[in-house]
């Protein structure tokens, strides 16, 4: 029969999956002979069973809990509900992954109207006994019965006003008794029944409540953010109470073995005298720094400092500990690996190597890759942020902090920026046409769109702060204003964005620049590069982006999106001329105007990248994206181009598509208009020849045909590329090598990868589109319904943020195997947004890809994730 309950003495630190982090560590501390109050753990499997059984606890599990409760009574010499020596317990959650503050805790369980009298007599301290009872009633009512916590606080405040005191500790024993009476009256009025007096009923209801809290809204959000699977469940720890609120020789506190903000090696924490643990967390009183304990209770401090050192050496990591002092005696209630800032994580990992506690590989695995984001972007000044009020919230789409004046169009952004002003671009949604405005903005704020919308993807690529999908904003472009939280913000007003939290501030909040170049960063990333096996490239469309990525350690460019080069100055005019051209000759004339721009861009990128690989994707988006849609804009453009507004309106209408994502785009453009591929090939090859002629580098271009679905399609476009390239190379007299590959972003291409590889010399997986087409939904619209899927546990994460390994991943794996079977030496990468997501990077390592490519500011994240993948899963 399955065992669902373990005494602390029966477990150990390796049983984390079953006992949860807290239960495993309590068992481990008990085994190490540390002063841990006795107790038992109800396993994570019992939690899973609870949900499988329709949120009920099976009779056999309840019987096992009661059996362990009887053992606990025997060990402590106390009894549940006793009038002379009552056993009181805490009931706490403990998932296998640390989820601080996300689930619920109940203290002082076991008190009732008779046990409280026995407790008062036993301790000789009625105030303490009734204080413990009122705390229990409040916690039980809040956590188990879901009554308003605020209402209990109001009752306490009312009594303090009546007594003329400011602090809870100033209330006397009779006041505590009065609170118990008033709390129970409130409970009865709300629930229509008396507060439960049977401690065993209290215990089972509390266990159920902790299991329920695994599924509370804040826990679900935290799990999605931190990729913690729902089916892990939480354990429940039932532990005999020790009391920090039993007088001035008692107290409670939380401490870290190192400073969690800086990583400095010194005890860091705080405590409260005559208080319970919840008081420290709730901030009801101002605690004292842990160093002061050395003066107040030197013996206890020395013992605690010794235990802290032993725990850090045992776990070989910075520890976060909770402790209680009862009548001068120290008890350890918890230890876990402490949460820390990115800067602290780097320092602690490197210091532990220098101290001989861990090796380089372990240090590399100790830092969360996503944490590095915080080191690469500007942040808000801490003091300034304390005074700022949040006026709205969207999706934290691209990290960093931004402060600037509101503008509504790319043109306005450029005008304000030209005057030296910092701006935040506010749009319903962005399009490729906004690129220049996005480039000069400190931050981007959109009403629509998710984490992989155009705004989010481009902003991350630029390292620009972005908050997307704030549906509470009402934008009025005509009035040049937007409304949020009842206030109108006009062009030129100050706002600030936090791209790491999604918070919007209706005022200017000072920012400070990032400083990632610390010695700790350099050393840890050096170790990461030493152990990783995947290459890490970047997605970059300009020499500036390329330079930034190289500074962050990029080994090449996995995606140059050539269409991003078409929106500046005279280029857009030439593109539009090409689109409205009525024949091939006119199209070629327009393309000839674009040629020098494209060639110059490629030369600039080659100069920055040297002999590092550069993969250039040919024109991909549908042509309508380059044309205006409003009548006045069409009229203005038509006059500019020397054609009638009617003619241009006809062209715009003819390019309208029901589903542009699956329409006339990608290699289909080159099949219909091979002259586009000819111009782009000319630009790529001429640029490579010119840079090679300078003698510093030998350039080997990699040309990527987008969205192929068939080998014949690939063959047709490749022949256009090869005939153009070979002619130019022959005329130049230089022996230039190049490759032609394709982007696999369609399920059919993945299924036929073996055939396509007969023509394609490399593959790059465009997992953004591959995800859209495999799931059959748009990344821009998915935000409207994904929330329902999370609530109903159908999906646990956004498939555009974390690669769907079960579906999309199978297609990638299949294409990798088929491609390599045809062309064993073939190199393959991934250039969708997943290239910078740590779990997706690990998958890419496992399936044998050559490299991942991501936006410049995610390069360090991908480097670290690739190293961790190689250490955990050596090829």
Summarize the structure.
With 875 residues, the chain is α/β, with parallel strands linked by helices.
Description:
The structure is a single chain. The protein is α/β, with parallel strands linked by helices and 875 residues long. Among the domains are: 115 residues, ATP-grasp fold, B domain (D-amino Acid Aminotransferase, Chain A, domain 1); 138 residues, Glucose Oxidase, domain 1 (3-Layer(bba) Sandwich); 302 residues, Phosphoenolpyruvate-binding domains (TIM Barrel, Alpha-Beta Barrel); 31 residues, no CATH class. The chain contains 35 helices and 31 strands. Strands 12-22-21-14-15-16-17-13 form an eight-stranded mixed sheet. It has an eight-stranded parallel barrel with strand order 24-25-26-27-28-29-30-31, surrounded by six helices.
List keywords for this structure.
Glucose Oxidase, domain 1; eight-stranded parallel beta barrel; alpha/beta; D-amino Acid Aminotransferase, Chain A, domain 1
Helix-strand blueprint:
Blueprint: E1 5-7, H1 16-31, E2 39-42, H2 44-52, H3 59-76, E3 89-95, E4 105-109, H4 115-123, H5 126-144, H6 149-163, H7 173-191, H8 199-213, H9 217-226, E5 234-240, E6 251-256, E7 268-273, H10 277-282, E8 288-289, H11 293-296, H12 298-315, E9 319-326, E10 329-337, H13 342-354, H14 360-366, H15 373-376, E11 379-380, H16 382-387, E12 390-393, E13 395-398, E14 401-407, H17 410-418, E15 423-427, H18 435-440, E16 443-446, H19 454-462, E17 465-468, E18 474-476, E19 481-484, E20 487-490, E21 494-498, E22 503-505, E23 511-512, H20 519-531, E24 535-539, H21 543-551, E25 557-561, H22 569-580, H23 584-609, E26 614-617, H24 631-641, H25 645-655, H26 667-672, H27 674-693, E27 702-705, H28 711-732, E28 739-744, H29 747-751, H30 753-756, E29 762-765, H31 767-775, H32 783-791, H33 808-822, E30 827-830, H34 838-846, E31 851-854, H35 859-872
Parallel strand pairs: 14-15, 15-16, 16-17, 24-25, 24-31, 25-26, 26-27, 27-28, 28-29, 29-30, 30-31
Antiparallel strand pairs: 1-2, 2-5, 3-4, 3-5, 6-7, 6-9, 7-8, 9-10, 11-23, 12-22, 13-17, 14-21, 18-19, 19-20, 21-22
Helix pairs in contact: 4-5, 5-7, 6-7, 13-14, 13-20, 14-20, 20-35, 21-23, 22-23, 23-27, 24-25, 27-28, 34-35
């Amino acid at each position: 029969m399955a065992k669902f309950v373990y005494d602390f003495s029966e477990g150990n630190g390796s049983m984390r999956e079953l006992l949860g982090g807290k239960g495993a560590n309590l068992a481990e501390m008990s085994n190490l002979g540390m002063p841990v109050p006795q107790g038992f753990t109800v396993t994570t499997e019992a939690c899973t069973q609870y949900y499988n059984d329709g949120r009920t606890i099976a009779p056999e599990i309840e019987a096992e809990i009661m059996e362990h409760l009887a053992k606990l009574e025997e060990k402590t010499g106390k009894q549940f509900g006793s009038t002379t020596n009552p056993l009181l317990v805490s009931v706490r959650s403990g998932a296998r992954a640390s989820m601080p503050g996300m689930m619920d805790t109940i203290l002082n369980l076991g008190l009732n109207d008779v046990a409280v009298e026995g407790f008062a007599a036993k301790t000789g301290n009625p105030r303490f006994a009734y204080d413990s009872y009122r705390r229990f009633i409040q916690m039980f009512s809040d956590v188990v019965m879901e009554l308003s916590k605020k209402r209990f606080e109001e009752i306490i405040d009312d009594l303090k006003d009546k007594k003329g005191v400011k602090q809870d500790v100033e209330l006397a024993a009779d006041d505590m008794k009065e609170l118990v009476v008033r709390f129970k009256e409130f409970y009865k009025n709300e629930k229509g029944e008396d507060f439960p007096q049977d401690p065993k009923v209290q215990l089972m209801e509390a266990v159920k409540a902790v299991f329920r809290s695994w599924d509370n809204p804040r826990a679900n959000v935290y799990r999605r953010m931190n990729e913690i699977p729902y089916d892990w469940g939480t354990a429940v720890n039932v532990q005999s109470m020790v009391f920090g609120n039993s007088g001035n020789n008692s107290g409670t506190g939380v401490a870290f073995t190192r400073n969690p903000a800086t990583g400095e090696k010194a005890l860091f924490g705080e405590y409260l005298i005559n208080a319970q643990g919840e008081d420290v967390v709730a901030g009801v009183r101002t605690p004292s720094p842990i160093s002061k304990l050395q003066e107040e209770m030197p013996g206890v401090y020395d013992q605690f400092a010794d235990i802290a050192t032993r725990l850090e050496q045992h776990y070989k990591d910075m520890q976060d500990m909770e402790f209680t002092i009862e009548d001068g005696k120290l008890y350890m209630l918890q230890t876990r690996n402490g949460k820390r800032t990115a800067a602290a994580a780097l320092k602690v990992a490197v210091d532990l190597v220098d101290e001989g506690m861990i090796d380089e590989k372990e240090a590399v695995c100790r830092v969360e890759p996503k944490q590095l984001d915080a080191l690469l972007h500007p942040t808000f000044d801490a003091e300034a942020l304390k005074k700022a009020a949040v006026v709205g919230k969207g999706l934290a789409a691209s990290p960093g902090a931004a402060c600037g004046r509101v503008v509504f169009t790319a043109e306005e952004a450029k005008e304000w920026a030209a005057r030296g002003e910092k701006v935040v671009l506010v749009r319903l949604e962005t399009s490729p046409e906004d690129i220049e405005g996005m480039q000069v903005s400190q931050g981007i704020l959109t009403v629509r769109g998710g984490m992989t919308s155009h705004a989010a993807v481009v902003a991350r690529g630029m390292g620009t702060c972005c908050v997307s999908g704030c549906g509470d904003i009402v934008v009025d472009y005509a009035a040049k204003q937007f409304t949020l939280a009842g206030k109108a913000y006009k062009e030129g007003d100050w706002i600030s964005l936090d791209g790491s939290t999604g918070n919007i501030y209706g005022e200017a909040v000072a920012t400070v620049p990032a400083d990632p170049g610390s010695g700790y960063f350099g050393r840890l990333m050096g170790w990461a590069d030493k152990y990783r096996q995947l290459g890490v490239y970047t997605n970059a469309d300009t020499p500036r982006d390329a330079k930034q990525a190289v500074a962050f350690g990029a080994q090449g460019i996995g995606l140059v999106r050539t269409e991003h080069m078409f929106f500046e100055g005279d280029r857009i005019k030439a593109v539009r001329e090409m689109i409205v051209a009525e024949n091939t000759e006119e199209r070629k004339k327009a393309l000839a105007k674009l040629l020098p721009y494209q060639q110059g861009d490629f030369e600039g990128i080659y100069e920055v990248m040297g002999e590092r690989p550069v993969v250039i994707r040919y024109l991909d988006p549908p042509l309508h994206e380059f044309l205006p849609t409003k009548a006045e804009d069409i009229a203005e453009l038509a006059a500019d181009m020397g054609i009638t507004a009617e003619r241009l309106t006809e062209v715009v209408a003819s390019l309208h598509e029901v589903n542009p994502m699956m329409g006339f785009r990608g290699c289909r453009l080159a099949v219909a208009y091979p002259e586009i591929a000819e111009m782009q090939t000319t630009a790529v090859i001429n640029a490579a020849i010119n840079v090679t002629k300078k003698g510093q580098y030998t350039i080997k271009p990699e040309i990527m045909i987008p969205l192929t679905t068939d080998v014949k399609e690939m063959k047709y476009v490749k022949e256009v590329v090869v005939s153009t390239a070979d002619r130019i190379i022959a005329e130049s007299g230089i022996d230039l090598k190049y490759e032609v590959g394709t982007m696999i972003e369609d399920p059919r291409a993945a299924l036929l990868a073996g055939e396509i590889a007969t023509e394609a010399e490399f593959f790059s997986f465009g997992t953004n589109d591959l995800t859209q087409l495999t799931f059959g939904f748009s990344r821009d619209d998915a935000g409207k319904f994904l929330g329902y899927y999370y609530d109903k546990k159908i999906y646990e994460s956004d498939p555009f943020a974390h690669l769907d390994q079960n579906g999309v991943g199978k297609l990638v794996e299949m294409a990798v195997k088929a491609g390599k079977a045809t062309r064993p030496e073939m190199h393959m990468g991934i250039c969708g947004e997943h290239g910078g997501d740590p779990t997706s990077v690990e998958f890419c390592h496992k399936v044998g890809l050559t490299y991942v490519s991501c936006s410049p500011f995610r390069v360090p994240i991908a480097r670290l994730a690739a190293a961790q993948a190689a250490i955990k899963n050596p090829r």
